[in-house]
Amino acid sequence: MNSVERKRLNRVLEVNDEHPKQQVGAVPDIDDFRYVKTEAKTAVSTKRVPASSNKNSSPVRLEKKIRVSSVVKVEVAAPENWEAVLEGIKNIRLSGQAPVDTKGCEKAGSLLPPKERRFAVLISTMMSSQTKDEVTHAAVECLGENGLLDPDAIVRTDEATLANLIKPVGFYQRKAQFIKEASRICLERFGGDIPDTLTDLLALKGVGPKMAHLVMSIAWKNTQGICVDTHVHRISNRLGWVFREGTKQKTTTPEQTRMSLEKWLPKDEWEPINPLLVGFGQTICTPLRPKCGSCGINTICPSAFKEASSPNPKQKKRGLGPT
């Protein structure tokens, strides 16, 4: 190996701050440069260094693993005073007098055996979209009184009869169709039980992320995400708890709110946050004319006394969509 070749080899070795302790002029053992898997993300640097001055010799390919810094997950800072705000809302909700406390989806089929109760929770949740808790609860009771909190019985019932029984639930005709189809799937694929994964629940027509997370939490006691409905979405924005990705702007959909909340809210608060904020939204932090004057957190809420005091006379009608 001449001096030029030796200098070239030294430069390759110095890239990694290593120089094998071998006699000068010898090509290092290729094992010194073998690829070794580690937890860090890596890139491979390659150099071709002549093994000798013989032009007919094959070059030795030296490969050395260079460590590349792993992507660091950026922690999202929790909102200021969020613990004090949350504690204040819990104190407000101690009375347990909101509709969700006695007639929410959590109460569906509460006296039934586990399997039957899970089905009742699914049906109740599917009917709850854009419908008050009191109306949904009454519809569930009506189905129960007619022996229809059972997938087999629902499949054998014609759609028109089913729709008439759950009326005046919002969009009752379409929901009757969704419930009937979901019942068939429960029978054919899950032995009469309901799906036990978010993926399978979301595959049911009329079931969106909010419903799926709620069913997983209530029916299966498996909280995988926060159930965000219109109350949780509205209140989280009023409190300044959520923002669109990479901005300081309010979220515009419940799904954006869910993802934003999950980045900082401790997991032990994921399940109780829904009924807590729903009840708060039903009694104090209402969509229109929120009762800021009687709210126990009005001194630390960034939106206190700032909401419009009168409704928009031209409210657009919304179509049915799973939430």
From TrEMBL:
Keywords: 4Fe-4S, DNA damage, DNA repair, Glycosidase, Hydrolase, Iron, Iron-sulfur, Lyase, Metal-binding, Transit peptide. It holds the Pfam family HHH. One of its GO terms (biological process) is base-excision repair, AP site formation. Its main location: plastid. Its cofactor is [4Fe-4S] cluster. GO terms for cellular component: chloroplast nucleoid; nucleus. The keyword Metal-binding applies. It is found in: Plastid, Chloroplast stroma, Chloroplast nucleoid. Residues 127-283 form the HhH-GPD domain. Its EC number is 3.2.2.-, 4.2.99.18. The keyword Transcription does not apply. Gene3D superfamilies: Helix-hairpin-Helix base-excision DNA repair enzymes (C-terminal), Hypothetical protein, domain 2. It catalyses: 2'-deoxyribonucleotide-(2'-deoxyribose 5'-phosphate)-2'-deoxyribonucleotide-DNA = a 3'-end 2'-deoxyribonucleotide-(2,3-dehydro-2,3-deoxyribose 5'-phosphate)-DNA + a 5'-end 5'-phospho-2'-deoxyribonucleoside-DNA + H(+). PROSITE patterns: ENDONUCLEASE_III_1 (PS00764). It comes from the Eukaryota. Bifunctional DNA N-glycosylase with associated apurinic/apyrimidinic (AP) lyase function that catalyzes the first step in base excision repair (BER), the primary repair pathway for the repair of oxidative DNA damage. The DNA N-glycosylase activity releases the damaged DNA base from DNA by cleaving the N-glycosidic bond, leaving an AP site. The AP lyase activity cleaves the phosphodiester bond 3' to the AP site by a beta-elimination. Primarily recognizes and repairs oxidative base damage of pyrimidines. This is Endonuclease III homolog.
